[in-house]
Predict the 3D structure of the following.
Amino acid sequence: MRKLLILLLLAMIVVGACSQNKQDSFVYVKGGLFMNTKSNYYGKNVTISDFYMGKYEVTQKEWMEVMGSNPSEFKGDNLPVEMVSWYDCIEYCNKRSIKEGLEPYYNIDKNKNDPNNKSDNDDLRWTVTINMGADGYRLPTEAEWEYAAGGGQMSKDYTYSGSNNGDEVAWYWRNAGNEYLSGDWYWPAIENNNNKTKPVGSKNPNESGLYDMSGNVREWCWDWYEDADINSGFFRVWKGGGWIGDIVSCESSYRGKFEANGKGSDQGFRVCRAE
């Protein structure tokens, strides 16, 4: 009997530790109106609901545990996964949800071309819809991403996520290699400087405790890039900038675009969940 009680106690400790680890990897983002005056949404009466966002960009270790292979150009367990398309990230969200006993957030139909996808360069064009009310993992919307990156209700009005000095919070083309580069952006200099991704959480966090919202890898969002019709478009939004790009793209308000099937060694993501 005593042995059984010890085993049960150990099991409870292990489960509790796992739950704590998962909880520690997410930040609770309290919703509300945009407080950061540099945001594209400031003063537009846009309200964000409470949600949980990954404290870090999804790492290669996390990706491997769910997907079983590693597409990244720069290998390392604690480096952000890259070379992932928007579709790859959608699949990861669903598979991770199933693995953790959550209801998948997305409905994916790989056999039906999405009529809302206008890109001739996208050879996949899967139809992806939302399973409303599901508690599974998902990509942040552009508004959620920008709200969180801008500090949410704790915003200090920073240009970058957590600072007005990009070097304090962002890995980008000048500082992501052996030496700090000066002058104009020049790919041969960047390549010779061994620029690459860095372990997640290596720079300072923002006001909400989120890391690498500026720099390291660009992060996919759910939204179409086009403003005229939010339900269709040629590109999906990415935010945050990356190790190849200029510091301007690391500004929280910067909007980037890429075809949903696009991949790059500076293209990654982070996940979020409903509150």
